[in-house]
Amino acid sequence: MTSADGEYRLYRELANWWPLISPAEEYTAEAEYLAGVLRSAAIPVREVLDLGSGGGHMATHLKDGFALTLVDISPDMLAVSRALNPECAHHLGDMRTVRLGRPFDAVLVHDAIDYVTSRADLRQVIETAFTHCRPGGIAVFVPDYVKDSFAELTGDGGGGSDGSGRQASFRERTWDPDPSDDWVQAEYEFTLRGADGAVEVISETHRLGSFSHATWAELLDAAGFEQRPEAAASRPGGRPENLFTGHRRR
User: Fold this and answer.
1) Is residue 121 within 8 Å of residue 143, measured between CB atoms?
2) How confident is the model over 62-101, as pLDDT tens digits?
3) How far from 23 is each of 60, 78, 173, CA to CA, in Å?
4) CATH 2.20.25, applies to 147-209
5) Could you tell me the residue ranges of all domains in the chain?
6) CB count, 10 Å around CB of 42?
7) Most Cβ neighbours (<10 Å): which of 98, 139, 170, 232?
8) Integer Cα distance of 186 and 203 in angstroms
9) Which of these, 50, 223, 214, lies nearest to 124 by C-alpha position?
10) Domain 9-145+212-247 sits in which CATH superfamily?
11) pTM for the full model?
12) 174 vs 12, 177, 183, 232, 250, CA distance in Å?
């Protein structure tokens, strides 16, 4: 998950805390579900482009079944991912405009899509996915929030630790200052305990996209994707709350 504009500290100088704030094991069930969705394409899926790959935690669970190419806008998050997934190809790029000059069997845009907050930018991301999707392939989008079903939430998470003794956790509140627009506001408080025991608390506010189902359907159709009922995946328990797919016709 990486800011589309790169302005958040979480994805810059705090990037090396990402494995503790959002431990890779928390992605296991969802990754297994998404692997089934990726394989529902009309063609065999081997090569997958992951747009907005962040620290590479989703990739850790998908790389055994697919040849992954990871793209992110944050050099710091790419460094975290390269250490975790050295066998994967990594590219620095903006999911709205990156062009790798080759097609893939499938394109995955996980929760980094949250940092797209305007229709124009969402259109660009979907067009990027279409451009890189081979005929018969599939594009899968997994936003955290959809306008039709959004409800204010509070929660906490993290709790990871590493061999040096570092620990990290967070609290969050996500709410909608103006339901007439296409974004919501997430307020985070990160508690970071260093190896020396020193504790730093960092607060940061993020703006996250929340588009309607109708907007998603309209833009997927405009890009040229065919929308079909989702095929059953291998682990229904890991299904993300929000999931949009587009199939590129053969």
Assistant:
1) no
2) 999 999 999 999 999 999 999 999 999 999 999 999 999 9
3) 11, 16, 20
4) yes
5) 9-145+212-247, 147-209
6) 15
7) 139
8) 11
9) 223
10) Vaccinia Virus protein VP39 (3.40.50.150)
11) 0.94
12) 22, 10, 11, 30, 40
